[in-house]
Every structure is written in C-alpha cells, then in structure tokens.
Amino acid sequence: MSNDFIAPDGYPRCQWCGGAPEFLPYHDNEWGFPVDDDQRLFEKLCLESFQSGLSWRIILNKRDNFRAAFLHFDFHQVAHFSEDDVQRLLQDAGIIRHRGKIEATINNAQRAKEMVEQEGSLAAFFWRYAPTALATPQTQTTSPESIAMAKELKKRGWKFFGPTTAFAFMQAMGLLNDHAETCIIRKKAAFASEAFTRPTKTNHPAA
After folding, report:
1. Of 31, 43, 48, 119, which residue is the catalytic one?
2. Gene3D superfamilies, from UniProt (predicted)?
3. In 12, 33, 95, 174, which residue has its Cα 20 to 30 A from 25's Cα atom?
4. Looking at residue 5, what DSSP letter applies?
C-alpha cells in the first residue's frame, strides 16, 4: 500500500497517477479498459509511437491537437496524406513536430487499411495477442506477446512500433489488466474485461 497513490477521493490508485493531475481521469476512465474500436486502437498506436523518447504527459496534453491534426485518426483519410500534409504538420506547434513519426503515422495508416482487408479489423489482429498468463502488475515493460506483436507489425511494414511500445499499447487498450493489485480501478477494469467479447475476423468483417 505504501507505493500507491492516494487520490483526492481517499482511495488508492496506481502509483503513476500521482505524476500529474491529468493522469487521474485518464487512468480511471480509459487506461486498462478493453477497446475494440479500430479508430481508437489506431489513435493509441500512433500516440504511443509519438511518445517514444518522451513522457506520456506531453502526449496526453497534446492529444486534442493530435486528433485535430490527424482527422481524429481516421486511418482511411490519413492514408492519403501527402508531402504537403507532412509540411503542414511540421509547422503545427500543437503536436510533436518529428518528421519520422509523422511519416510513420501516414505509413501506418496505409498498413492499417491493408490489415482491415486481411484481418477484417484492426481489433481482430491486435486482440489475438492478449496474454493468457499475466505477470504481477506493472513489473515488466515487454512481454512475449508484445515482442511477437511488434515483430509481426514490422514484417507487415509498420513503423515506430517496437516491443516496449506494443506493451504500453496493450496495457492502455485493456489487452491485459495491469492496474496495481491495490488500485481501486483494477476490479472495475476486470468487470469490463469479463463483459467484453473479444473481436475476431468472423465478427468484424471487412466492408
């Protein structure tokens, strides 16, 4: 319990929630809850890539700017971004102006369209990597599943998405419940996971 963050409501949360005021609502309402919406999955994948080498606080505080800049991460539209869009984004002070990450986002949008054609949905692909055996919460930064996911994405041409980024993505999107054992939100996330139907290629047919 000594490593917990005690929130203003008096209940314990994961320790990292104490790092910034904006972390608490994100932690309580998003982090670790299962997601099967392709656009949200793509957004998180891109934001995790932009976070590489930076803090999540920077990305979280710029998230609305990223959404505006990348058309709410509609990968069908982002896939058609041109060099003019790259130049526009490089001038946008509201996001991270890193050419490599911007170009990777456009590339990954193109790869996402291919994945929907091949797998039925992004969700069908990513959820196949949900681990069945879980380690003690928040004791690792990669896993066999995140390593396998990153390797397969690299094989398919995705960029800026290594095993550590993949694991952070899995934590955030609820592929595993990595809330601390004493965190009051852990049980809430577990209930959400129990009620969640894992997407498959069959129940997410391509359009």
Report:
1. 48
2. Hypothetical protein, domain 2 (1.10.340.30)
3. 95
4. E
The answer to whether 46 is a known ligand-binding residue is no
Distance CA 106, CA 103 (A): 5
The owner of tokens 């319990």 is 1
For the question of residue 26 being annotated catalytic, the response is yes
Of these residues, 26, 30, 103, 152, which one is catalytic? 26
pLDDT at 97: 97
End-to-end CA distance of the chain: 49
CATH code: domain of residue 45:
1.10.340.30
Report the domain count for the chain: 1
Please give the share of the chain, as a percent, with pLDDT higher than 90.
91
Residue 14 buriedness (CB in 10 A; 0-12 / 13-18 / 19+): buried
Domain membership of residue 126 as a residue range? 36-176
Indicate the SS3 state at residue 187. Answer: helix
pLDDT in tens, 4-30: 899 999 999 999 999 999 999 999 999
Catalytic residue list contains 129: no
Q: Is 127 a catalytic residue?
A: no
> What 3-state class would DSSP assign to 13?
strand
Whether residue 200 is contained in a domain is answered as no
| 27 labelled binding-site residue | yes
Q: Is 14 annotated as a binding residue?
A: yes
pLDDT in tens, 101-123: 999 999 999 999 999 999 999 99
Token digits of residue 154: 């690299």
The residue from 16, 30, 31, 56 that is catalytic is 56
pTM of the model: 0.93
